[in-house]
């Protein structure tokens, strides 16, 4: 698979089979992803990979919180600006329409949206997951490094025939994740990532993108 194919075939997959993801594949991918760039080579990512019993335990604990209607953990970072302005606001609502529309859930049915979103805490059925932390001392440039690292992981997983879904949702249950992973206190959970083989019976709508001239400016001589 070439890089273009890896980039264009990556999408947030929200339905996985229980097919085992071999440890050696994960090690190969994470060894290669370590070559992701970072400013001054800080490599500010801290990744935890969960499979088998520990992942099942995490899904169980998170599921219990969902069932109990437990409030989300207080955020350690702001996931979105409080008042999202144009054009981001419109893009976000178009995404919501697409994501939940594909599941036949109307805009006003917030409860059904919540129910669909709660599949996050089952990792959409995935048998492997990665949780990426960053030191709380780090600033925007290092958060960006972590983003590059995660995209590198996702593309390499595509090259192995696997799919992913990055999940900031896990930050909402970060204390439950910490119960299973016991990370050092100085780390903040940025996001989780479901990893596995796609369940092709789960329908989806491909999420669109803004036209090139909305996000790219060529300044030519
Ligand atoms: C940092 C990050 C966090 C995300 N968090 C979630 C999440 O919690 N749950 C989810 O279902 N999708 C999540 N996504 C997936 C995005 O919704 C998805 O990437 C976006 O809508 C574009 O769609 P595509 O990846 O299928 O092209 C996340 C993506 C990123 C990059």
From TrEMBL:
It comes from the Bacteria. GO terms for molecular function: oxidoreductase activity. InterPro entries: Nitroreductase, Nitroreductase-like, Nitroreductase/BluB. CDD domains: PnbA_NfnB-like. Gene3D superfamilies: NADH Oxidase. Residues 8-196 form the Nitroreductase domain. Keywords: Flavoprotein, FMN, Oxidoreductase. Coiled coil: none annotated. PANTHER family: IODOTYROSINE DEIODINASE 1 (PTHR23026:SF90), NADPH NITROREDUCTASE (PTHR23026). This is Nitroreductase family protein. It comes from Streptomyces jeddahensis.
């Amino acid at each position: 698979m070439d890089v273009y194919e890896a980039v264009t075939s990556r999408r947030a997959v929200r339905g996985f089979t229980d097919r085992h993801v071999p440890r050696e594949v994960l090690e190969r991918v994470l060894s290669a992803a370590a070559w992701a760039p970072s400013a001054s080579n800080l490599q500010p990512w801290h990744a935890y990979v969960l499979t088998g019993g520990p992942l099942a335990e995490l899904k169980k604990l998170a599921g219990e919180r969902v069932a109990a209607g437990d409030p989300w953990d207080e955020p350690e970072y702001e996931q979105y600006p409080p008042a999202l302005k144009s054009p981001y606001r419109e893009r976000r609502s178009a995404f919501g329409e697409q994501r939940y529309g594909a599941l036949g859930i109307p805009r006003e049915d917030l409860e059904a949206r919540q129910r669909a979103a709660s599949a996050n805490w089952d990792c959409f059925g995935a048998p492997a997951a990665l949780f990426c932390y960053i030191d709380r001392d780090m600033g925007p440039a290092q958060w960006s490094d972590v983003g590059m690292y995660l995209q590198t992981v996702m593309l390499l997983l595509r090259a192995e025939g696997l799919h992913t879904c990055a999940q900031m949702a896990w930050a909402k249950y970060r204390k439950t994740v910490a119960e299973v992973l016991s990370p050092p206190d100085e780390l903040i959970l940025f996001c989780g990532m479901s990893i596995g083989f796609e369940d092709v019976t789960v329908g989806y709508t491909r999420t669109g993108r803004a036209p090139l001239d909305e996000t790219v400016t060529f300044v030519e001589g």
